[in-house]
Amino acid sequence: MIAIGSNHAGYKLKEEIKKYLDEKDIEYKDFGVEKEEIVDYPEIAKRVSEAVSKGECKSGILISKTGLGMSIVANKFKKIKCVPCYDEYTAKYSKLYHNSNIIALGGEDLSISTAICILRMWLATQYEGDRKQELEIIDEIEKENMK
Question: Which residues partner with 62 through β-bridges?
């Protein structure tokens, strides 16, 4: 199950990504917004990140104007590794090396076809496991600083 959410600037792209997920029979839960209404992005990022952090959803997709603010909010949650992705390269290595569980996309920066390519790469990539020690260090830092 994938958690997906956007603010008003990412709404159109979110709806196109939902169509792609439907075509691929990939389950998702939409955490808003329901239309191009102006909304504070931290609330949407919080909903998606909580669902992934608590294990209600396996991964997440956040979409705002640039994806940057959404990723900042997401990374405030335990067990979250959110990376803004702008191309297939960043999508691949965010998962392959860093085992990201949420990606953030720019709804005004990316074309629909580019966003779908990024998402396809991210979904298809598996964590290689070679960097386990580095991720354990990151987890320790998280435990020390997120009490």
Answer: 5, 104
Count the domains in the chain.
Answer: 1
Q: Model confidence over 14-51: pLDDT tens digits? A: 999 999 999 999 999 999 999 888 889 999 999 999 99
CA–CA gap between residue 102 and residue 62 (Å, rounded): 7
- The DSSP symbol for 8 reads G
The per-residue pLDDT for range 1-23, each reduced to its tens digit, is: 999 999 999 999 999 999 999 99
**CA–CA separation, 9 vs 17, rounded Å?**
14
Token duo for residue 84: 């803004």
| DSSP reduced 3-state for 100 | coil
Confirm if 113 and 132 have CB atoms less than 8 A apart: no
**The pTM is what?**
0.93
Cβ–Cβ < 8 Å for 105, 10: yes
Dihedral in degrees, nearest 10, Cα atoms 73, 75, 78, 81: 140
Range of the domain at 52: 2-145
CATH number at residue 59: 3.40.1400.10
